[in-house]
Specification:
The complex is a heterodimer of chains A (96) and B (631).
Chain A: H1 2-13, E1 17-24, E2 29-32, H2 36-60, E3 69-72, E4 77-82, E5 86-92
Antiparallel strand pairs in A: 1-2, 1-5, 3-4, 4-5
Chain B: H1 35-38, H2 90-102, H3 104-126, H4 135-149, E1 154-160, E2 169-175, E3 182-188, E4 203-207, E5 216-218, E6 224-229, E7 236-241, E8 246-250, E9 259-260, E10 271-276, E11 284-289, E12 293-298, E13 307-310, E14 325-330, E15 337-342, E16 346-351, H5 357-360, E17 361-366, E18 372-377, E19 384-389, E20 392-397, E21 406-407, E22 415-420, E23 427-432, E24 436-441, E25 451-454, E26 460-465, E27 471-476, E28 481-486, H6 497-543, H7 547-590, H8 595-601, E29 607-608, E30 622-624, E31 627-629
Antiparallel strand pairs in B: 1-28, 2-3, 3-4, 4-5, 6-7, 7-8, 8-9, 10-11, 11-12, 12-13, 14-15, 15-16, 16-17, 18-19, 19-20, 20-21, 22-23, 23-24, 24-25, 26-27, 27-28, 29-30, 30-31
Helix pairs in contact in B: 7-8
The chains are: A alpha+beta (96), B alpha+beta (631).
């Protein structure tokens, strides 16, 4: 429990990190550093995106699987680390 | 040789029913090959015959039906919570979350993902992977590349169709002054008395992103022929209608006109053009129509025009003699002058500040054969203006009144509208009745348009370029307004373009001036000659000379001239031979030639090409009165 907290704190202290969200496989946000409405929005939208991406990767090659997803936009970068049961989402403002 | 077969039937047997029967073939004529005829033919060997083994294909075009889309929003509700947890209750959700956090699996997963994520974050922080190197060089390269390779092109972005059943012509277009996201289109039926009874009078304002439905409908009393946004206040539009009235709308107040001009004081014919004027109040405008008047209005008081001008060239304010106007031109940088294009093919330049109506009309420019549908000054060089009429488009200089300084060739279809590009001084666009849009660049090519795009099958009646020069809208006879985007080559200003355009225009203007001067000279000569001959004639008439003597004299004169010419030619030939010999000598000596040798020979040459000869004699051509010398 403490290690989890420590890990998250370490991530939060990195340069440019705006927020962290952890969601479970059903899209329910477990932990978040952002406000509730943003969390819910990110959770809902990114959950669907990860599902779609994963199925795409597996369709192209059934042996393959999604390990990491980065969505870079004009204002920031959304990084999603997916797992079987949980997703870790970090929103960062890149170095420039 | 005729082969004849006579079929005989008895008259008494006519009309009898036919009994068909089968019999073997009978040989009626047998043509044997005639060996003598073979002599008249040539055997062809080898014979070249093309053969191809390929499947037969045919070309088909399919266009899908127009897809109507509507924007709708979706309301998201939080979901995914297990059945026993009510998402609204804070306690339950918190409890659920705490439970999950205590899970072993959760902790392990997060540790793993955490390390992975940290790695990516640090990557991001270390270096920006999308940084552009050599951005400026890239741009330069791109510029050069586009200059050399890119073909000018126009792409259709959107098509706005008239939603009514009965299609009317899109007679006028106006872009929204700020932001350019809206386009106002005036629809009317310009053919005299051909407007069907149930034709709608509405005109529309379209948002260029949404071609399915117009943003606002303007409902005038009579269809609008021309429509303009007020450049100062983007909510006000002024429209000239088919029955001669002017009306103005405020888009904040809806589709009904805010005020209309009084019928008694309006035009008697459709108002073909309205233009907003530059004034402190931003409410002045003027309009023109085929009834021969130009009226000035203040939109705050539409009951009667503030000023009136009758386009009567004899300056007598006579409406019957007036020229009928179809287009107007006003440039905010020159507020006292304006120009009117007439149906008679004349452009009338007028001065607004003249004291008496007689002085209002300053001068006219003639040269077109048909009504002048478009008239616009060059936004960069107001001294030059473009007129579009009949089958040509012409560019005029204000000082030269006899003819235009540049013109396009005569096209097959009538030109309906045209305008300058607001970003490039040498580019202008025209639309024709066969549905093509032409983009002309007079610095690049004068004979043909730089770009010619067939926009639609029906006639294109109006054209307007957006202020950024990139987008153009053209309206067609069936009410379709097409939005086109032109390639960057035609809307980015090239280096030195302004100076080149000025130089070209000045050169053409000078040419016209010289031609004018020459013409004047010739006219003077003619006049003096005719006067002289009149004197001569009168003298001879005194001496009772008959026509035969005149003929004889004419013959004598003619032969004299011919002989003089012949002598001159012979003299030239000799001179030339001498000159040529000298030239040849020089050629051998140092392989180069000076023009001074030419002057010695006094050759009446029209063009001489002397090449620097290097070792061998290359093409040296002399064009001189049908004598051609070439090695």
């Amino acid at each position: 429990m403490a290690e989890v907290e420590e890990t998250l704190k370490r991530i939060q202290s990195q340069k440019g990190v705006q927020g962290i969200i952890i969601i479970n496989a059903e899209g329910i946000p477990i932990k978040s550093t952002l406000d509730n409405s943003s969390t819910v929005q990110y959770a809902g939208l990114l959950h669907q995106l990860v599902m779609k991406t994963r199925s795409t990767v597996r369709d192209l090659d059934p042996q393959n699987d999604l390990t990491f997803l980065r969505v870079r936009s004009k204002k920031n970068e959304i990084m999603i680390a997916p797992d079987k049961d949980y997703f870790l989402i970090v929103i960062q403002n890149p170095s420039d | 040789m005729e082969i004849v077969y006579v079929y005989v039937k008895k008259r008494s047997e006519f009309g009898r029913p036919c009994y068909f029967s089968d019999r073997p073939a009978e040989l009626h004529a047998d043509l044997l090959p005639d060996a003598a005829l073979a002599a008249t033919f040539l055997a062809r060997d080898p014979c070249d015959v093309g053969a191809q083994c390929a499947p037969d294909v045919s070309e088909h075009e399919v266009n899908t039906e127009r897809f109507e889309s509507e924007s709708r929003g979706i309301n998201h509700v939080e979901g995914g919570w297990p059945k026993d947890v009510n998402p609204q209750e804070m306690e339950q959700t918190i409890r659920f979350r705490k439970k999950v956090e205590k899970d072993e699996n959760y902790m392990n997963t997060i540790m793993q993902l955490g390390t992975l994520m940290e790695h990516s974050i640090k990557q991001n922080n270390a270096i920006d992977i999308y940084q552009e190197y050599f951005e400026e060089e890239d741009e330069e390269d791109e510029e050069e590349v586009t200059d050399a390779k890119e073909q000018p092109a126009a792409k259709t972005i959107n098509v706005f169709r008239d939603p009514n059943e009965v299609k009317r012509t899109a007679s006028s277009l106006s872009w929204h002054p700020d932001g350019n996201h809206k386009l106002a289109v005036a629809y009317s039926c310009l053919e005299f008395q051909r407007a069907p009874k149930d034709m709608s009078f509405d005109s529309y304002i379209w948002d260029i992103e949404n071609p399915n439905r117009p943003e606002l409908t303007l409902k005038p009393v009579s269809p609008l022929v021309s429509l303009e946004y007020n450049p100062k206040d983007s909510h006000i539009l002024l429209g000239g209608s088919y029955n001669g009235q002017i009306a103005y709308w405020d888009t904040r107040k809806g589709g009904q006109p805010v005020e209309m001009s009084a019928i008694e004081h309006s035009h008697r014919d459709p108002v073909y053009k309205v233009i907003w004027l530059q004034s402190k109040t931003g409410t002045d405008a003027f309009s023109t129509s085929t009834d021969g008047q130009v009226l000035w209005w203040d939109i705050r008081k539409m009951s009667e025009p503030t000023e009136r001008l009758v386009l009567d060239l004899s300056r007598k304010e006579n409406l019957e003699n007036a020229l009928t106007a179809v287009s107007l031109e006003f440039e905010p940088t020159m507020p006292t002058k304006f120009m009117v294009g007439t149906e008679q093919g004349l452009v009338v330049s007028c001065n607004r500040k003249a004291k008496t109506p007689a002085e209002k009309i300053v001068c006219t420019y003639s040269g077109h054969h048909g009504p002048i549908y478009a008239l616009q000054r060059n936004p960069f060089f107001p001294k030059y203006f473009l007129t579009v009429a009949d089958w040509t488009a012409r560019i005029w200089s204000e000082d030269i009144k006899e003819s235009s300084i540049m013109w396009t060739k005569y096209h097959m279809a009538y030109l309906m509208d045209g305008c300058w590009s607001p970003v490039r001084p040498s580019v202008f666009f025209t639309v024709k009745m066969d549905g093509t849009l032409d983009a002309w660049d007079f610095l690049f090519k004068r004979n043909d348009p730089t770009l010619s795009v067939k926009v639609c099958d029906e006639a294109l009646c109006s054209l307007r370029v957006q202020d950024n020069g990139r987008l153009l809208a053209c309206g067609s006879q069936l009410g379709t307004a097409t939005l086109l985007e032109i390639s960057p080559g035609l809307c980015t200003m090239q280096r030195n373009e302004k100076t080149l355009a000025t130089a070209m225009a000045e050169r053409e203007a000078k040419r016209e001036k010289i031609l004018e001067a020459r013409q004047r000279e010739m006219r003077l000569k003619e006049r003096s000659r005719s006067e002289q001959s009149k004197e001569d004639e009168s003298r001879e008439l005194d001496g009772e000379v008959t026509t035969e003597d005149l003929v004889a004299r004419a013959e004598k004169d003619f032969f004299q001239i011919v002989e003089a010419e012949l002598k001159k030619m012979e003299k030239d030939k000799e001179d030339e031979k001498v000159g040529w010999k000298m030239c040849c000598k020089l050629l051998d000596q140092n392989h180069t030639l000076n023009l001074t040798v030419v002057s010695l020979a006094e050759l009446r040459s029209t063009s001489l090409f002397w090449h620097h000869l290097v070792g061998q004699v290359s093409m040296v051509t002399l064009d001189l009165n049908e004598l051609r010398w070439s090695h």
